[in-house]
Amino acid sequence: MSLISQNELHSLLQNIYFDNIDSVNSKGASKAMHENVEWIHTQVWEHDGHDASNIDILRGRKSVEDFLEGRVYEIQKEGITHRVDKVLTDGKSGSFLANVVGKDGTLKPFFGWVEIEDKKIILYKVIPI
Questions:
Q1: pLDDT digit string (tens) for 52-72?
Q2: Predicted confidence (pLDDT) per residue in 59-116, tens digit
Q3: What is the DSSP string of the chain?
Q4: 115 lies in a domain?
Q5: From residue 110, how far is each of 60, 62, 63, 66 by CA, in Å?
Q6: Residue 1 within any structural domain of the chain
Q7: How many domains, the chain?
């Protein structure tokens, strides 16, 4: 089993996952996920009828890609981006602090927990803080 470094996890989250979401590339974003990912997401930035009262739970990379395909355009319309600020990992799992950044600079912080298999995210959990 190969372990993931702190820099690799930051890149997986920021460069592969969130930067692709922010540039309307759901297929690219889903490449951060393991084929058998369990993806659990609580809405951080409320928009287009999405709020923190609903938790989205998906299983499998294709399900995540399909879900994001519908959301990336809403995200772009809303004018928000994602910024990963801190990452901690033991090589097999990790946590991160990030912000959704509004077009006016408003920050909405969130916390994430991930578990890693084959240097891909096999468990993804995000909650607003």
A1: 778 999 999 999 999 999 889
A2: 999 999 999 998 898 888 889 999 999 999 999 999 999 999 999 999 999 999 999 9
A3: -PPPPHHHHHHIIIIIIIHHHHTT-HHHHHTTEEEEEEEEEE-SS-BTTB-TT-EEEEESHHHHHHHHHHHHHHHHHHT-EEEEEEEEE-SSEEEEEEEEE-TTS-EEEEEEEEEEETTEEEEEEEEE-
A4: yes
A5: 23, 24, 22, 23
A6: no
A7: 1
pTM score, whole prediction:
0.93
Q: CATH number of the domain at 118, please.
A: 3.10.450.50
Tokens of 116: 């890693």
CA distance 25 to 72: 7
Parent domain of 85: 6-128
Q: Which two tokens stand for residue 8?
A: 């690799």
